[in-house]
Amino acid sequence: MSAMGMSQEHDEMDECVQALARVHAFLHEELVEADADAIRIHLHACERCMENFEIESTITEMIVRSQPVEQAPTTLAARIQTMRITRR
User: Fold this and answer.
1) b/e 8-36 (16+ beta carbons within 10 angstroms → b)
2) With 86 labelled, which of 26, 33, 38, 70 sits at a CA distance of 20 to 30 A?
3) What is the torsional sign of CA 27, 32, 35, 40?
């Protein structure tokens, strides 16, 4: 394998590392559009990263679905407040 071939492969690995490092920010829509586009392009070109992304995406969806949307009843919040005051 030539040095040229190795450096190309190394660059691709760097791209994968960078894409996967930012996958959580991408999933939570915390990236600027240019960075999000760069990750989308990489994911479409790289099957291994796309598989990792799909796994992370599924896990994130499961976490979001498992979190209750509703808040605790006001009576419970009031009871907790009084417990804090009385326990010293």
Assistant:
1) eeeeeeebeeebbebbeebbeeeeeeeee
2) 70
3) positive
Provide the token pair at 35: 């960075």
Summarised one tens digit per residue, pLDDT across range 31-52 is 999 999 999 999 999 999 999 9
Q: How far is CA 11 from CA 7, 21, 31, in A?
A: 6, 15, 22
pTM here is 0.59
Q: How far apart are CA 53 and CA 42, in angstroms?
A: 11
pLDDT in tens, 1-29: 444 444 455 577 888 998 888 998 999 89
